Give the backbone structure.
Amino acid sequence: MEKIRKQIVETVKRSENILLMPSTPVDGDSLGSSLALYLIFKKMGKQVTVVCADPIPDAFKFLPTTKVISDEFQGAKDFIVTLDCKKAKINTIRTKLEEDKVNIIITAKKGQFSSKDVSFQHGENKYDLIITVDTGDLEQLGRFYEDNTEMFTQIPLINIDHHASNDHFGKINYVDIMSSATTELLIPLIQDFERDTDMQLMDPDIATLLLAGIITDTGSFQNANTTPRSFAASAHLIKHGARQQEIIQHVFKTKNLSTLKLWGRILSKIKVDEQYRIVWSSINEKDLMDARANPDETGGIIDELLSNAPNSEIVLLLKQKSDGVISGSVRTPNESIDASQIAEMFGGGGHVQAAGFKIESDNFEETEKMVIEKVREFQQKRMKAGVNFEQKIDQKEPQQEEPKKTSTKKSSKKAEKPAKKSTKKKKSSSSEKPEEQKEESFTDFVIKTNMSDDGGTEMEDDVIYKFEE
Ligand SMILES: [Mn+2]
């Protein structure tokens, strides 16, 4: 770990423009760790951007510097067409719109251009380092990853996380599954930065951000992931001015009426399989609307209510969304049952005692039936394997943290992407359309770009760039 931290310090020192990415949905830990690093890097004189695809939940808006988080960033959106002018000189370049295409018409002064003179590349990335925090896999970055997949292979990436399901996607992976929160991992790292820069970097705001991560991920030190190290880390942060009461007030002591109404709905829908000790409930968009609650408010319900169901070994909450996605949260009060294994059956992942998944389906009843049936089979196999069912049943200390979800939908999308791109390339390649080239004057060289994929691109018809001698 010490060696990995040294690599991180060296890499950050070499970087000028750093992109910080917390996972979605955001929680106290992903926000706390990204914003703490933001403040540290700012003190070190770096350019820093924090982007998050999801809105910041109201409960966390009290955290220092949440305002710097943006929900948009300029990725490598430029597509550059390069023309080699060694053999021919340019007279004019015109662009001409043609329905959903744009023709780039290059007229040569002398000689002629051929397809061999044209090459394509993507614009340079603005950032020279990406750091993901509290992110088990890249798809948890949401649309930022989907829209800029290539950027993640081009820019060095540091992966800082504590999820058991982390798939080590970074160039540097600072992953410790024994850590109660990602922010806990940042404390020794910040000390390394302090030693290296000879600067005092920790301050009360940074300490508050880091403590917020530990408090939310341990459920205020109630969950099973609380370790002696989490207490020691918290003591260290409070010594540095972390405002513990402010965190407790905002995160735990303010429950909206809408949240309480939502709890009521979920409680009334609880179902139990006594034989296999499965307890589950569901929530849909109508429940949210009737309770005038927003989706963030479902966070924590599964931990605080469902896991208190007596004799339950597996607790599930299924959320039905209007976009045809059903997401599931899994909790296992007994740590001999791996919640992430259950989530993996549905393409998800997470921790031993808290995990999640997403299923694309419009039919809730059918999906619910399928999920519960598979979970029953899972339990049945455990029984046959001779696992003692009675063991540790009284120990009910779930992990508070909202699991990081992997979606089967997204992974299939990812598989589609490269195929899509290659067809696009074909369309834009001039060599595919020799007959159209012939129609132009002899020295004209025409590049046709299909613009149907990106309707937002605005271009004036017939823009002429004249090249003076
Ligand atoms: Mn976390």
In short: The pocket of manganese (II) ion is lined by residues 29, 134, 162, 181-182, 217, 401 (CB under 6 Å). The longest helix spans residues 364-384. Confidence is low (pLDDT under 50) at residues 389-469.
